[in-house]
Amino acid sequence: MSQSTAADQSVEAHRGQTESPLKKGDGHPSDDPSASGNLDKIRDILFGAQAREHDRRFAQLEQHLLREATDLRNDLKRRFEGLELYIKKEVESLTNRLSKEQDLRGESVTRLTQDLAHLAGIVEEKARRLEQQANHAQSHVLQQLTERINELADDVRIRHAETTSSLESAVRDLRAEKTDRAALSAILLEAAQRLSDGETPTS
Prior knowledge:
Blueprint: H1 2-25, H2 33-197
Helix pairs in contact: 1-2
């Protein structure tokens, strides 16, 4: 950039030097086509090589900048592609991990559900057995109570029968004893009557 500025300044200085004599000649050098052509030739002779060198350098610089821009664009493209690939891999890995965790949790829930169902079945079976045992115990107790009640009833009937028989026997004995006493009283009365009548009692 500094070389270009220096070259431009040199061109302007030389332009001022070449234009001065012409202006001092007739006062209207810009209207002469031959003077303008000569001026271009002089410029080409004095600064043509330098201008071409500057153009060549500018072209090289432009090509270098284009290459740098292309390389930068390609590098950014590669970086973006690498970043995109990395993001895709991370998302895929995260998705797989989440899917595995979801599967594991689903399996855990399934096992837990099965365990709960199994436990519920065990509890239900134990409850059924306890109910059967309670019913059996209740039936056994009722049977024992019934048997005991029947035994007590039989015992009461036997005792009642024995008591009734004893009472009847006692009543019969009393009646027999009463009959004997009545008969004895009649015999004694009869004997007394006979004694009083002077009869000998007969056996």
